[in-house]
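Quick question: what would this complex look like in 3D?
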Amino acid sequence: MDTVILQHISKSYVKEGPPALQDISFSVKKGELFGLIGPDGAGKSTIFRILTTLLLSDKGTATVAGYDVVQHYHEIRSCVGYMPGKFSLYQDLTIEENLHFFATLFGTTVEANYALIKDIYEQIAPFKNRRAGKLSGGMKQKLALCCALIHRPEVLFLDEPTTGVDAVSRKEFWEMLQRLKTEGITIVVSTPYMDEASLCERIALIQTGQILSIDTPANIIKDYPGKLYALRAPKVHQLLKDTRQYAGIRLCYAAGDKLHLSFKDEGKDHPAELLSWLESKGHQGVHIEEITPDIEDCFIAKTSTHE
Amino acid sequence: MKQFMVFVRKEFYHVFRDRRTLLILFGLPVMQILLFGYALTTEIKNAEIIIVDHAGDMASQQLTTMIAASKYFDINARVVSDEDIYKAFKKGKVKCAVVFPSGFGNDLQHGQTAQIQIIADAADPNTAKTLTNYLTAIIGDYQQQISPTANVPMRIEPVTRMLYNPEMNGSMNFIPGVMALVLMIICTTLTSVSIVREKEMGTMEILLVSPFKPTYVVLAKAVPYLALSLIDLIIILLLSVFLLDMPIRGNIILLFLESTLFIICCLSLGLLISSVTRTQQIAMMVSMMGMMLPTILFTGFIFPLENMPVPLQVVSNAVPSRWFYVIIKAVMLKGLGIGVIWKETLVLAGMTTALLIISIKSFKTRLS
């Protein structure tokens, strides 16, 4: 049986207007590293709060580690680790005091499960007498992860653990998650960063409370509809404006210093036509090539067809 | 139990690492006791007075000395002309003038009625009234001193005795009232803010997603503040006894037990406020403003409850400090035992139980 199961979960915060979650169903296998990928406001935190028994859904059922989130919320609270999106440890307590507090609260000791957090804790141990409020973003997240792990949870819920963290710490953080996976802990993690999606085993793309697709990152990329091209020219801004005027364009958007685009009708030889069309518009040095889409491209493609 | 203890310890860390909380906890009671005890009494001290002595004999000088020796008056000037009196009044500093007519001592010694003029600045009628009362009292004293057995008319004396020394009366009633007020505000404010802070900082989310029962969160919050409030109580009592000359005539253990009951009652109220408010600011507003006014109005130490319209008297029954005020006055000032105050104690205990149950029941086990 899967560790986390959601069936037709819906939730609205207000009576009028669009719901926060609309008929969400997915399941996470035991020991899996599952990613919820979506922009701010997509409903990721709401899913976490329903799974951690903090919120009640309007419709649908969900189980975590075999327990129902409504009836057996107390059992769930003992066996999951939760790291909210906002830093939620005691700012006026030191690293050591925070860790000790949460260990005791869960009825265990720091020593008992030290092996599990050793790799992470050693990085922040030199500052163990510093108050949590005075730590850098990356160190705060490492401490929060330690506190969420200290009771060796069956399932770990991490709500945007890498938001507001520098690139190096983000990379380290994901390496830690890979290591935790080998300990058999099921991990559900959310992130607004599309580049982190490929580090998960399976991902769910979420937009405005609905799931766009659930699959492994590789399959999602493989399922990209049609071909994707990258367009390069000196005047990117003007190029974007003009390219969007071209009749055969399905999607065109800026990605870094390039434009990514795809065509409506795959049959024709669009790239060459587009190039000559752009040259007639006065663009010079335009270069086009076919590229492999990444998760972000897939996300944009899904969102546009969804709308 | 170990979880409970570690939670309580965490609360103490919060208190001792936050200067603002410490200030409210220990600064506020000291400040309020001193403020109410010294500054805000109805008594007038060191009022500036001028003496116009047309007599210049022994009797007038003796009386002048008595007035000067009193702590209520400071002699600002001794002038001779009536014009100078009005000049002094117009400057606004002088509140009162005493005029001895010529032949004052002579009149007195020959058994006739001696007259003395008291002029007060009635722009502030209350002060003027109080000061003239003080002065007639001093004059009455003097009359009795010089002729304890003589049949000099002393008709004014019995009247002024009644009004004399309003200070003792005021302060004695004030301090128990202030004690009730201070404990009420500190206990409700600090507990309500401390729970709401967990909500605001997001730590409540983690606390809820733990095996620690929500009921224990509420109780573990109350325990440290109970201990700290008891320290406050000791500080207040020490200040009252040694600085404001308040007696503790009753049983001190009874006093502490009753105070503990009242503190628990206020803590429960604070817990209740915290479970219905979302931000620290609102919690602070509700417990400071919402509690301060009813406490001041309906406790009876500033506005006597007997003089209120009946509907307001009924409302006052819902204010815990009203009952505590009766209890503490009985124990501290009158030295009475539990036999007299058991009714009030029972009311307070009932309120406490009800509040505690409601606040534990209304504590949310989920976020909304």
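Answer marked as accepted. The longest helix of chain B spans residues 166-201.
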